[in-house]
From TrEMBL:
EC number, UniProt record: 5.6.2.3
Biological process, per Gene Ontology: DNA recombination; DNA repair; telomere maintenance
Protein family (similarity comment): Belongs to the helicase family.
UniProt-listed InterPro entries: DNA_helicase_pif1-like_DEAD (IPR010285), P-loop_NTPase (IPR027417), Pif1-like_2B_dom (IPR049163), PIF1_helicase (IPR051055)
Record's protein name: ATP-dependent DNA helicase
Species the sequence originates in: Hevea brasiliensis
């Protein structure tokens, strides 16, 4: 079984190597040379903080670590550094990089946790899940050879799933040690997106931290506290409080200034909680330009089951562009020039590339030229997204690294940093969604809100409790003593822009106290 897997993997790797070399020599050159430069530029911009270095030291000692912290505290970049380190220690074949969502997995060149584990969509009881794993020789092999398992965006994984995977790990490795002795590196922020409801769960547990094995799974649980995405102290404080579902009078005033009854101009990205709205708005805007549409179809390679996984990733199956289309980068191209995941711009034209191999994606044989809002204008070439397994590429997708950017999905906003964004909060937003959106924007000047109602800023009580216990009593006391928190007897009433959401603060705060 092991040998077959190895042969398969080599065959796939060879196929991949030949196919990519046929696609585009320049893209490949840019990719391979680019990867080194990208890593260099990523690292050279970063002066690791003491808390980030502490985390790496724990990993170096072989500890299993849970890394948490608010949006923009550097969890993802630190995770990349940890992955590089672990691959040096265990070799690429012993390190498996996963994430709860395809988008997050894609950003780390990993795969979804479900696919690594071999449990399908995972919505089943333990016995059936184990049977599914045992039926897949590849999955059995992965569980046996993994030395270090990385799981990003843990907030979306349910308690039930976490417990089942821990049991599967022990079973597959024939070990009674927690997670069968795997070094576990888990990252995420439970104040952001919550788990999707788990039909197999009768225990009432929702979040992974409620799993019986949660505490035993980690030697260390660390909360990163320094925010890098934003630099304005007021904005950071507002975000920290929003994250915890707290509302202060000064926050309401700041958010009021971001509210408008009019939608901003179409160059500002609008965030929606549902994909169908995103597709509808982008499609309508594209057609309203009345320009010839150039279509790019993703080219995939690799094993069938892993190719399916690429569809859950960030690069679309099909991308439609035309002159004047607003677009957003979905990959870091050049961090120094601010051409990062989330950078927006406008398509200004199309060119015929010199290297004909880059034309495989579009029958029109053209590449888009984009004028980015930050200044540069450039031809955007196809990029490759890979799924690595044991150091080998087992599946890959080539596509133009752009999304239409009039509308964007909250769920695909992970890891993005935007200069300007708009959202209509009157649409249904669950726990954490408002915080996720507000924390994507660099400065408050770039934040445009409509339909705002303070009751939307809410944190799940279980999550609050979990972080209070992580931070210890000190932090709780600090919050309690904070004199600036709104007095419940405040009789003031604040009208938001558009005069649509008038409310009494005292009523609002009291209603929250009673859990309404
Ligand atoms: N020590 C550091 N010095 C300078 N910049 C840093 C440092 N750590 C992280 N950053 C930068 O901060 C930004 C946010 O980092 P990152 O995306 O890793 O945060 P995150 O915690 O994963 O956020 P989210 O929860 O929103 O995904 C990135 O541009 C990253 O390069």
């Amino acid at each position: 079984m092991g040998l077959n897997f190895f042969k398969d993997a080599i065959a796939v790797y060879r196929t991949f190597s030949t196919k990519t070399s046929r696609i585009s020599k320049t893209t490949r050159r840019a990719q391979s040379g680019g990867n080194k430069n990208k890593k260099k530029s990523r690292e050279s911009k970063i002066k690791w903080t003491e808390e980030q270095n502490d985390v790496l030291n724990h990993v170096r000692c072989g500890s299993s670590v849970f890394i948490t912290g608010s949006a923009g505290t550097g969890k993802s970049v630190l995770l990349k550094r940890i992955i590089d380190f672990l691959k040096k220690v265990h070799g690429s074949s012993g390190v498996f990089v996963t994430a709860s969502t395809g988008v997050a997995a894609c950003a780390l060149n990993g795969r979804t946790l479900h696919s690594f584990a071999g449990i399908g969509i995972g919505n089943d009881d333990y016995g059936n899940l184990l049977e599914r794993v045992l039926m897949s020789s590849h999955a059995c092999n992965r569980w046996r050879k993994v030395n270090a398992l990385i799981i990003d965006e843990i907030s979306v994984i349910s308690a039930n799933m976490f417990e089942n995977l821990e049991s599967i790990a022990r079973e597959m490795r024939g070990s009674q040690e927690v997670w069968g002795g795997i070094q576990l590196i888990v990252s995420g922020d439970f104040f952001q997106l919550p788990p999707v409801s788990d039909k197999c769960n009768s225990s009432g547990k929702e979040f992974a931290f409620e799993a019986d094995c949660w505490d035993a799974s980690f030697d260390v649980q660390v909360e990163l506290t320094e925010v890098f995405r934003q630099s304005d102290a007021e904005q950071i404080k507002l975000l920290q409080r929003t994250r915890k579902g707290m509302i202060y009078a000064e926050d309401l005033q700041i958010l009021e200034q971001c509210c408008s009854s009019n939608e901003p101009d179409s160059s500002v990205v609008s965030f929606y909680p549902r994909n169908e709205d995103v597709n509808r708005v982008n499609g309508e805007r594209l057609r309203s330009l009345g320009e010839k549409v150039v279509v790019y179809k993703a080219a995939d390679g690799g094993l069938d089951n892993q190719r399916a996984e690429l569809k859950q990733g960030i690069a679309p199956d099909q991308l439609e562009l035309c002159n004047g289309a607003r677009v957003m980068l979905i990959k870091n191209l050049n961090v120094w020039r601010n051409l990062c995941n989330g950078a927006t711009g406008t398509v200004t034209g199309f060119v015929e590339p010199e290297d004909k191999y880059v034309l495989h994606l579009s029958p029109d044989k053209l590449l888009p030229v984009v004028k980015f809002d930050s200044g540069p204008e450039m031809v955007v070439e196809p990029q490759v997204w890979e799924i690595l397994e044991g150091g080998l590429t087992v599946a890959w997708r080539s596509q133009i690294p752009l999304h239409l950017a009039w509308a964007q999905s909250v769920h695909k906003s992970q890891g993005m940093t935007l200069d300007r964004l708009h959202t209509d909060l009157s649409r249904s937003f669950g726990y954490g969604m408002v915080y996720v959106i507000l924390s994507r924007v660099r400065t408050l000047k770039g934040l445009y809100l409509s339909g705002f109602n303070p009751s939307m800023i809410k944190a799940h009580p279980k999550v609050l409790h979990f972080y209070e216990s992580l931070a210890g009593e000190e932090q709780c006391k600090e919050d309690e003593n904070n004199s600036k928190i709104l007095d419940h007897s405040d009789k003031s009433s604040i009208a938001f822009a558009g005069k649509k959401c008038k409310f009494s603060l005292s009523e609002f705060l009291l209603s929250r106290q009673h859990g309404k």
